[in-house]
Specification:
The complex is a heterodimer of chains A (333) and B (269).
Chain A (H helix, E strand, L loop, with lengths): L5 E5 L1 E2 L2 E2 L1 H17 L3 E7 L4 H9 L4 E6 L8 H15 L3 E5 L4 H11 L3 E6 L1 E4 L6 E7 L4 E6 L6 E5 L16 E4 L12 E7 L12 E5 L9 H11 L2 E4 L1 H5 L20 E5 L5 H4 L7 E6 L12 E5 L1 H17 L1
Helix pairs in contact in A: 3-4, 5-8
Chain B lengths: L2 E4 L2 E3 L5 E2 L6 E2 L5 E3 L3 H15 L3 E6 L5 H10 L3 E5 L9 H14 L5 E5 L10 H9 L2 E12 L3 E8 L2 E8 L2 E5 L11 H9 L4 E2 L19 E6 L8 E5 L2 H17 L8
Parallel strand pairs in B: 1-6, 1-8, 6-7, 7-13, 8-12, 9-12
Antiparallel strand pairs in B: 2-5, 3-4, 9-10, 10-11
Classes of the chains: A alpha/beta (333), B alpha/beta (269).
Chain lengths: 333, 269
């Protein structure tokens, strides 16, 4: 049997399908249509309702393969990998895409080794090459300074992780129909070595900076940790989350999960506001795929202005409080 | 506790060039350093050694010059290094790199733990750690931000995920990839540097590792770089000076209008 069809790896959290699953369906639908094949979404998890599964169909899947079992309630690399490898061997998809999330970036390399597949990390562009029907995978590398297009000419499946938020989620179309295929978990696929024994919520903001539409970030220009309250206040008013430069994190002003840049997170929000951040190349690497960048900095020569859509050269301690005030007034209306 | 740490040598600046034909990086003439994210793995490894004893072996796959990275790790406190190097590895993608590293590790008996950085700052894939674990069928935990407890058989560790920290019990032997939050890397000591100078770094290749040559280098790599593009770096943005009360106020008005027009925030604002 030859390899056929496009798969997306959906993700769920306590029975609710994560948004990234719909972003992948938007990507997958385009690829499947170009190839003239079915698009299937694969979901491993626990306690997923029929109505949640239908969402995947409304968003573009022709088929949904679901393995629902208590043992799959949490992501454990070995278990998820064993189950996915089993499905791949049975159904032989030609393309598999997953989110470049903590689980996607763990699962996919583990699986790609097992099935001798090529894997490309953190893609921001996917397409089908006309002549060969190969998957063309485009990704930023070397700190976003180059865009490399990669293909997997001989091995199947062709696998890729896709940067979160790099495409809009597929729209809901309730007229769509598709097939939900329930697959029973075979117990021998549960590895059982690694166990999740607890969970601790991140302090402060609950939304990860990679999932946020608006990120307001502060850097060394804030001078003191306590001044980060200006950033927090603005983020709150705009309905965004806080980010930080490496400087701010290394000084202990904000915790590491908020760090944007090469040694932190690469993000693609709709709006990124950089405050008191000069824009070291390592920082800019983290925001290359942001839709709109706004910068506020006192140094007119700061690098950050080169990548800004709107820049304010001024004293952040004058600008931000007034901006917060104006937003508060508007909010009261 | 015997520990293996996987490191990668990366270009010092992000200003490196690519060979447009092969799509691989031209490393000549650019200063090389240990991947900054690997330093955290090195630090954690040294801390574990200080607490529980044992030996740390650092391994890298790279050109002959990558010996420098291994020596630097030794000067921080690692015990010895192994350089996997040779023409046959040139152009290896993450799959082929994972394969070669895994086969080399099979030659090392008696290890309890393999540590690696979350990803390298040049290739930025984060795929080699999980890939090596997969080849060796080792228990894997990625994005580890804290080691909570270590016993003979298990490590309890926190894993940084999108919405918080998972607490995992990982049986040994295992492979962990770690994030920056886990430690603060120490600097090499003078004594460490002297030790590094004296330490011989063995070079392993197909001559001393049992390797299937068809799985190495460019021809052993499932993926191919077919095109290199240079993304738009700069944006033609509006830059406004806000120096006095009046201009600040006016600028804020313009900014609010700008983000409203882009429908980035709700009209209510």
């Amino acid at each position: 049997m030859s390899y056929h069809g496009v798969w997306t790896i959906a993700e769920e959290n306590r029975g609710k399908i994560k948004e990234v699953s719909y972003e992948l369906l938007a990507r997958g639908r385009k690829l499947a249509d170009k190839l003239g094949v079915d698009l299937a979404s694969v979901l491993l998890g626990s306690n997923i309702s029929e109505s949640e599964l239908k969402q995947l169909i409304y968003r573009g899947a022709d088929k949904v393969y679901v393995v629902d079992a208590p043992e799959l309630g949490n992501f454990i690399a070995e278990n998820y990998s064993n189950v996915l490898v089993d499905l791949i061997n049975k159904y032989k998809p030609e393309i598999i895409i997953a989110g470049a999330t903590t689980s996607g970036r763990t699962l996919m390399p583990y699986v790609s080794v097992r099935v001798n597949a090529g894997l490309t990390a953190d893609c921001t562009g996917l397409d089908i090459e006309e002549e060969t029907k190969n998957l063309l995978q485009t990704r930023p590398a070397i700190g976003g300074n180059i865009l490399a297009t990669i293909k997997t000419p001989n091995n199947r499946p062709q696998m890729a992780t896709v940067r979160v938020k790099s495409s809009r989620p597929a729209p809901i179309d309730k007229s769509r129909s598709g097939e939900i295929i329930n697959i029973k978990l075979r117990q021998e696929l549960i590895d059982g070595r690694v166990e999740r024994i607890g969970f601790r919520k991140a302090e402060g903001e609950t939304v990860g900076i990679q999932d946020a539409d608006i990120v307001v970030a502060g850097g060394r220009g804030l001078k003191k940790g306590e001044n980060f309250r200006l950033i927090r206040e603005l983020a709150e008013k705009l309905g965004g989350v806080i980010g930080a430069s490496r400087d701010a994190v290394d000084r202990g002003w904000v915790s590491y999960p908020h760090q944007v840049g090469l040694s932190g997170k690469t993000i693609s929000p709709k709006l990124y506001i950089a405050i008191g951040i000069s824009g070291a190349i390592q920082h800019l690497a983290g925001i290359k795929t942001a839709d709109t960048v706004v910068a506020i900095n006192s140094d007119p020569d700061a690098q950050i202005f080169k990548v800004s859509d709107f820049g304010i050269v001024g004293d952040l301690f004058e600008v931000i409080p007034l901006l917060n005030e104006r937003l508060a007034k508007k909010g009261d209306k | 506790m015997n520990i293996i740490i996987l490191i990668k040598q990366v270009p010092e600046t992000s200003n490196v060039k690519m060979d447009e034909e092969t799509g691989t990086m031209i490393r000549d003439g650019v200063e090389s350093i240990i991947n900054p994210l690997d330093l955290y793995a090195i630090e954690v490894g040294i801390q574990l050694k200080e607490k529980f004893g044992g030996k740390i072996t650092v391994i890298t796959l790279g050109p002959p010059g990558a010996e420098k990275a291994l020596k630097e790790a030794i000067s921080m406190g690692c015990d010895d290094g192994i350089l996997i190097s040779g023409r046959e590895f040139k152009g290896s993608d993450t799959w082929a790199t994972s394969y070669a590293l895994a086969e080399a590790i099979k030659k090392i008996e008696n290890y309890d733990l393999i540590l690696a950085g979350e990803r390298a700052t040049d290739g930025d894939t984060g795929q080699v750690g999980p890939g090596v674990a997969s080849f060796l069928n080792l228990a894997l935990a990625t994005y580890i931000s804290k080691i909570v407890e270590v016993s003979d058989k298990n490590i309890i560790a926190e894993r940084l995920v999108e919405d918080g920290y998972e607490i995992l019990r990982v049986p040994l032997p295992a492979l962990l990839t770690v994030v920056k939050e886990i430690s603060f890397p120490r600097l090499p000591t003078l004594r460490g540097k002297q030790k590094a100078k004296k330490t011989e770094i063995p070079v392993w290749s197909t001559e001393n590792i049992e390797l299937d040559k068809s799985k190495l280098g460019l021809k052993g790599s499932p993926t191919r770089v077919v095109k290199i593009g240079h993304p738009r770096v700069t944006r033609n943005g509006t830059i406004v000076k806000a120096t006095d009360d009046e201009s600040i106020s006016e600028t804020i008005g313009r900014l609010l209008k700008f983000i409203q027009e882009k429908e980035l925030i709700q009209r209510g604002h």
